[in-house]
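so the lab meeting is tmrw and i was supposed to have these ready like two days ago... anyway. pasting both below. for each one the top line is the aa sequence and the line under it is the structure tokens. i havent really looked at them closely yet so no promises
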Amino acid sequence: MNSSPDFFSPRENELFQKVSNAEKPAAFFNLWTRKEALLKATGEGITRSLSLVEVSFLPGEAARLLAVSGDAEKAAQWSLRELSPATGFTGAIAIQARDVDAKCWKWG
């Protein structure tokens, strides 16, 4: 799985290249869903701003928004949380508030 400059920041691209081949799919989907969550929450959509949003994405790493257009303070205004809706799936939610706790419940 190769990265693309269209949706990776330079820092993310460098980190992604160091991820083992076995972990690349999980890293990619963590990255994608976390960026998508923020860009949909802001109303920007994913067509132009993917590489301007930096997120944590390594497998096992907590979901965090690191920077928006290089601005860590702007990123700190948001909470980014991982969701695990089902085995083998990942998702994320972005909320414009600091330190929000979110839970993913499975309806039985």
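ok protien two:
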Amino acid sequence: MKRAKIVGVGAYAPKRILTNAELEKMVDTSDEWIVQRTGIRERRIADPSEATSDLALRAAQQALERAGVEPGEIDFIVVGTTTGDMAFPTTANILQHRLGCRNAGSIDLYAACAGSVYSLSVGAQYVQTEKYRTVLCVGAECLSRITDYTDRGTCILLADAAGAVVLRASEDDSGILDTDLYSDGKYWEFLYQPGGGARHPATHETVDKRMHFAKMKGNEVFKVAVRMFGEAAERILTRNGFVADDLDLFIPHQANLRIIEAAVKRLKVPMDKVMINVDRYGNTGAASVYVAMEEAWSSKRLNTGDLVLLAAFGGGFTWGAALLRW
């Protein structure tokens, strides 16, 4: 079975920057408090005219251009998102049309902030089994649209962005070596959006109760997330005969600097081998790993032959890891 290989990577972040100083005027918080607890100094917020598919389109176009792939060559599109343009059609369907991928099937994948690793794993299967030759994997979010800017526990974290990769079969030893996906629904009340679905459809009551915004129990999320990160990373390394010292780069979900640092300490990976941009982008959900990967590539922190570990977790909870040879 051939490995799926990333042949092009792209990312897009909205132009508007929301700083900690601006948040100080909106909620009871301070720059010092935010930085100490999250490591975030600023985040990107989509313009009111922008939706998730707009961000996804920009990231996908860049990935296709860098891969030297025409839209008509794409066979399948997987979009990881929690904040699709609408209930239906899927954001992937909208992206397929706007890109001009006339021959492509498409799906949205809902795994919250783990949508990056999940979409990469799903896309890789199609290439590895030779079902499809070229697959586009995207992570895109407009999390600002489900952010309660009266709740300092969530509004300091969430942001908007998109990232994308193009997958094709590898002709050498490079490519995605392995992926590992997990979930445990017993943690759903730690991080969720109660309104807008079949259980609590939109009504005056759900709007008045602010049920259409993300809800989070921060301390509980922190404790579980650190364990998830560590266990998934350790398991995938061991299964493939590697140890942490073998890694050239670790690209974690950019949820919170404290979570990243705790997970890295458990893994015993030096911080100079960890890609971090949460300070400038905040938590961009399913986009975050792809956005960090694009930055690592464009800044030449990713080089041919590098052993790279990806890990992410999200509400549900869902989590997972991917190991690849660049």
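from a quick look at the 2nd one: The longest strand covers residues 160-169. The chain has two domains: 4-172, 177-325. will dig more after coffe
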